[in-house]
Amino acid sequence: MLLIPCPWCGLRPEIEFSYGGEANIARPADPAALTDEEWGAFLYLRTNPKGRHAERWRHANGCGRFFNAVRDTVSDFFETTTKPGELPPSGGKS
Amino acid sequence: MSEAFRTRDGGRIDRTRPRSFRFDGVGYQGLAGDTLASALLANGVHLVGRSFKYHRPRGVVAAGSDEPNALVGVWRDEASYAPNLRATQVELYEGLRAESQNRSPSLRFDRGAMAGLLAPFLPAGFYYKTFLWPRRAWARFWEPRIRAMAGLGRAPTLPDRDRYAQTYAHCDVLVVGGGPAGIAAALAAAAGHARVILCDEQAELGGSLLAETEATIDGMAAQAWLAEALARLAREPRVRVLPRTTGFGYFAHNFVGLAERLTDHLAEPDPQAPRERLWQVRAREVVLATGALERPLVFPENDRPGIMLADAARTYLRRYGVKPGSRAVVATAHDGAYRAALDLHRAGVAVAAVADLRPDPEGPLVEAARAAGIAIRPATAIAGTKGRLRVRSARLVRIGAEGEAGGGASAGETVGCDLLLMSGGFTPSVHLFSQSRGQLAFDPVSAAFLPARPAERCRSAGACRGTFGLAAALIEGYAAGEAASAAAGRGGAPGLGFAVTGAIDTRGGTLGATPHGRDAARVKAFVDFQNDVTAKDVKLAVREGFRSIEHIKRYTTTGMATDQGKSSNMNALAIAAVALGRPLPEVGLTTFRMPYTPVSFGAFAGFARGELFDPLRRTPIDPWAEAAGAVFEEVGQWRRARYFPREGEDMHQAVGREVRAVRQGVGIFDGSTLGKIEVVGPDAAEFLNRMYVNAWSKLAPGRCRYGVMLREDGFVMDDGVVGRMAPDRFHVTTTTGGAARVLATMEDYLQTEWADLDVWLTSTSEQWAVIALQGPRAREVLAPLVAGADIGREAFPHMSVRACRVAGVEARLFRVSFSGELGFEVNVPADYGRAVWEAILRAGRGFGITPYGTETMHVLRAEKGYIIVGQETDGTATPDDVGLSGLIGRTKKDFVGARSLRRAAMAAPDRKQLVGLLTEDPREVLQEGAQIVANPQTPAPVPMLGHVTSAYHSPTLERSIALAMVRGGRARIGEVLFVPMPGRVVKVSLCDPVFFDREGVRLDG
Predict the structure, then answer these.
(1) Above 70 in pLDDT, residue A87?
(2) Which domain holds residue B12?
(3) Do the Cβ atoms of A20 and B713 come within 8 Å?
(4) Topology (CATH) of A1-24+49-94
(5) Which of B131, B364, B676, B877 could form a disulfide bond with B142, CB atoms 3.0-4.6 angstroms apart?
(6) Over 80: is that where the pLDDT of B721 sits?
(7) pLDDT at position B563, please?
(8) B interface residues, A as partner, C-beta within 8 Å
(9) What DSSP string describes B721-764?
């Protein structure tokens, strides 16, 4: 069970969290302006890197808040976690 | 029987406290402090089991948890029966009952031993190839027989009524293993004021010190030093010492699982006390001091009872005061066996010979053995053994300069013995380190895989790191404890030097099969005793094309099951490496998996059994329903009343009566399980505009609307009525099962996409009890109870909501209907739910008010063609597919899922669409999930046009009805299609999904 540093609550066990998928994928401001391919890419295409991965977590059974994290998908260790709006962590290909 | 093999003195057993016990029905005596294995050996009993595959007679090999053979069943009664316990770990108590396994009818005469004769037909992977023809013979003939014959132990037939506890713990330093290195580590960490947990799998801490009779530490006899060290640790308030506790699994981020056995060693355990406790420890730092395990030698017929590990024999002698035999042959490639030989010699056991594989054994122990007159045969291997139920002799052959043994089946010297000790050297126990994803590296000097790069915050110390000397282990353990304490932010205490005398460092070891000069195809030299894998099997796997050690493991089963490679993996690896012609480190080890030793299911289950397995959610009205004789069903974690049968009614009759009551009079229904979310804030309407397909801005306070929510991919995710309580306040309802998911999705968008919106979301599912009152007479029942609102037909039309009082309780009253009848849903604070329910029941008595359950609710809504998300929809249905495109706010630019709905595929005319089905025979109720085809005569594969989603008998229509999702279904209305069922085909005609009151006039009643 991972230990995850919630930026608000500190280190907490994984069972308190829910995973939120890859980070830094903003919902397009005007989806109607997107082609099907562009919209499909937004919906489905993810980097899925081996190594540093910028991702979202929610402290669902704690403070309830979303935050961003950089986790190494090989070792499962977290490099950083940041509140939304803080300098977005970069990872993977992004 | 007397303990003929008990020494006159010495050992850690209590000679004043005899313990009687039974093994396979025979009574024996042992002593307090014995294990079942040591007590049996004290009585001269070596034969304790039959092997897994060949049913060969087997004896005790080891003295600890690495025991592969002596697996026994132990029980107080049938409910407490525990199979496959290692006799070397079963502590003796008065009256203990144990039995051997894998034999029938008895250990001495076993029918299954026939398997030994069949051995040529049972090579590695035999079940993959031998029994495949004829095909049906496997399932009918071979499998049942092999299953009956193979396998170890039996499962208890009664439920386990013991209690198993679970606990979480945090510490600065967790030390796994209570031998010299582990104790030193704990002492160091304790000196640094760290919070320490020290666990050891044995009943007593001390590890190798428990059998140490010569060495001194800091001027004290080793065992006296041990006692003082443990006393010091016991005085430390920050140190928790856990004996009988196995560190079985090392998980991510220093999360370590410990299994503590609490009562299995007691003659009369407190029935209230837990039998075992599962510790889930999160440690800042971990010190692994898990020791090393002696390797068996792989020589022909190395599995007879009486053949055991040299250090195990020494442990039996020194710790338990048991002579494991009368005349011993010692086979070794390691100095340690000389110590065992000397100890046995001094205890009066004749040591006939020491056969050392090494050409020039030397060192102080070898000299001491020579001085004691023990015959030492250098460059000598064991070419075979004899003895059916106990080893009777060993044949010693010289190894030539080429490393090969003199040939022939009768070459060499036959030496009579009843005990054959073997030592192939020691394998560091790197199981936990490897489980933690730490990287191992092969050390050519010690010919072992040692911890190299840890992945976690952990240190290895002592024998598990290849550090074998007592002084070195103590110093290394102390340094590891000190460093761990400092790394955990506690103090580091100045290093203690340990002055050790009398401990002699040992060297040597060998890997793989030893030379024997016999036809390799005809001998059985066991690599893995527990799984009956021989050197030949490993070579066969390589010959058959397996290259990866992981595949070889699975094909031969070596290192599987409870052994987990403790005794076998290095030998198997070495044999495979030779067969593959590749260097051993390159072939690599198989992955170590948890658990290190088996953990009972009870410990994992803990309290989560029976009623506590999954929490049951009950509504405030549930006790009333139970008293009223409701039949319940489980919906997710909720328990819901399904119907309320009256005397003599079956479900069909009860549901028929309940449905007619709602259609003709008034019914009352507990809808408390509905998900509810309070959406509040200046931007609440805008937020809902974005989340739902519907438009909310123009919804006036006091009105409500049926809302549909999509996922971003355009498919229906959830639905429910949303009431506007105030310009900035919405009462949102969701499906029963979708509540948490909907709230999480809303939070996701609110926090991460539209953080600028000023909105608050609060789950209120459990705060409101919901009482649905449905039927043409609902208003008459309710009106007298309502204060603060006019619920008249005009003042309070369909899809309205009011804050008011019902039966004197503050309420939110909705006029909504999921039955198609005039309907109200009374929301009151949950604690008042039952009182208001009963008040309404009293008020309705004169109207024949009828409680109804979920089954009736389903029939009512199906008659009206109302969908249930998750029943009609399956995550691939758009709003249009289920006939709800009219809800979509046409002027809205965007909402979740809007863009996806504009994809061409989402408007394809052949999408599955919601329709009604009427069977030709009105009594025939279709099966939900059944497939629908155009022509059942079409050769397979028949194109599937759709499937039945809901099917009921409709009491209102007095015939069966069904809802279905059918390709291009709306355009097919009127057509006849077919539902193929086993042995027959049901003819159906497609119709509008609304079966009753298509105009909806009854809603406005």
Answers:
(1) no
(2) 1-159
(3) no
(4) Folate-binding fold (3.30.2270)
(5) B131
(6) yes
(7) 78
(8) 251-255, 282, 437, 455, 712-713, 744, 747-748, 751-753, 755, 893-894, 898-900, 902-904
(9) EEEEEETTEEEEEE-TTTHHHHHHHHHHIIIII-TTS--EEEE-
